[in-house]
Structures are given as structure tokens and as C-alpha cells.
Write a structure and sequence with these properties.
Keywords: Membrane, Transmembrane, Transmembrane helix. It comes from Microbacterium aurantiacum. This is DUF2569 domain-containing protein. It is built from seven helices and two strands, in the order βααααααβα. It is mainly alpha-helical. The chain has a two-stranded antiparallel ribbon. Helix 1 runs antiparallel to helix 3.
């Protein structure tokens, strides 16, 4: 009679999860760093808008800088929360999680490219740029590890089943 058992995931799945967890740590560090540099960074973001259209009031530039900063920050935190959810779903072998993780990686890449032009404009933005690049690299590495044959077989099996007869299971006594 088949018995459901909990078998550990293969090494490729464990490495992919480690990469994704490290990317979450890097993303949290990036969001934290962005929050820390918020005060000195806001005038520099306002200067970026001032270069585009110099005929507005200073409050307009400050408001635009606030809106852009908090939007980027909120998207980074939202992507982190989504990726935590996707990691848990992947570890529970939900279908199509690799595609969702890939989509969140694409979203993070778009946010990185857009915020590079507005948020990461000075030397304070260089560490944030590197942190987000590390996060993206770890996400991509995790995706690549999760499509190795062992990982694909592990996720294709919805349940781990051990086959054997009742006689062989009672042999311990």
C-alpha cells in the first residue's frame, strides 16, 4: 500500500531557496538603506525634476520627489512581500511558481532601471544600486537552479509516495 512521506527536496531546490532567501535579505537591506538615505536624497531627487522643468515652485519639486521616493520604496517592499509569498508557495510545490517568481524578477528589474535614473543619482545611490543588482542576480541564479532536472522532477511530484507491502513495513518489530 502506498504511504505518503515527507521527503527532503533535492540539492538544486535547496540551493535555489537559499539564493531566493539571500535575495530577500539583500532586498530588505536595500529597502532599509533607501529609507535611511531618504532625508538627504529628497533634495537631489527634486533637482532631477528641476532640470526637466525649471519654471515651477519649489514645493512642486519637493512634492514630486516625495511621491517618487515613496512610490519606489513601496514597490520595493511590495515586491519583497510578494517574493516571500512565492517562495513559500514554491516550497509547497504549487504549480507555475517559477513563472511567478520570474515575473516578480522582471518587475524588480523594471523598478531598478526606472529608479536608477531618478533615485540613484548621487554617490549615496551607488550602494543601493549594487544591493539591488545583487538581489536581481540571486533571484536569477535561484530561477536557474530551480529549472535543473532534479528540481523539475521534485515539483512535478505533488506528493512523495513510498511504495511497499504491509509485510515489509511491519518488519521493525
Amino acid at each position: 500500500m502506498p504511504v505518503l512521506v515527507k521527503m527532503p527536496p533535492p540539492a538544486s531546490v535547496r540551493l535555489a531557496m537559499v539564493c531566493w532567501i539571500l535575495s530577500l535579505v539583500a532586498g530588505a537591506a536595500g529597502a532599509g538603506y533607501l529609507f535611511i538615505i531618504r532625508i538627504p536624497q529628497l533634495p537631489e531627487i527634486a533637482d532631477v525634476f528641476r532640470e526637466v522643468e525649471p519654471d515651477r515652485a519649489d514645493e512642486t519639486y519637493e512634492l514630486a520627489a516625495d511621491i517618487v521616493f515613496w512610490t519606489v520604496f513601496a514597490v520595493l517592499v511590495t515586491v519583497l512581500l510578494i517574493q516571500i509569498t512565492l517562495l513559500v508557495a514554491f516550497s509547497n510545490r504549487r504549480p507555475r511558481m517559477r513563472w511567478w517568481i520570474f515575473g516578480s524578477t522582471i518587475l524588480l528589474g523594471i523598478v531598478f532601471v526606472l529608479s536608477r535614473e531618478i533615485i540613484m543619482v548621487t554617490e549615496r545611490g551607488v550602494p543601493l544600486e549594487r544591493i539591488l543588482l545583487i538581489q536581481l542576480a540571486l533571484l536569477v541564479l535561484g530561477i536557474l537552479l530551480s529549472i535543473l532536472p532534479g528540481a523539475l522532477r521534485w515539483t512535478a511530484r505533488k506528493h512523495d509516495v513510498r511504495r511497499g507491502s504491509e509485510l515489509s513495513s511491519g518488519g521493525e518489530f
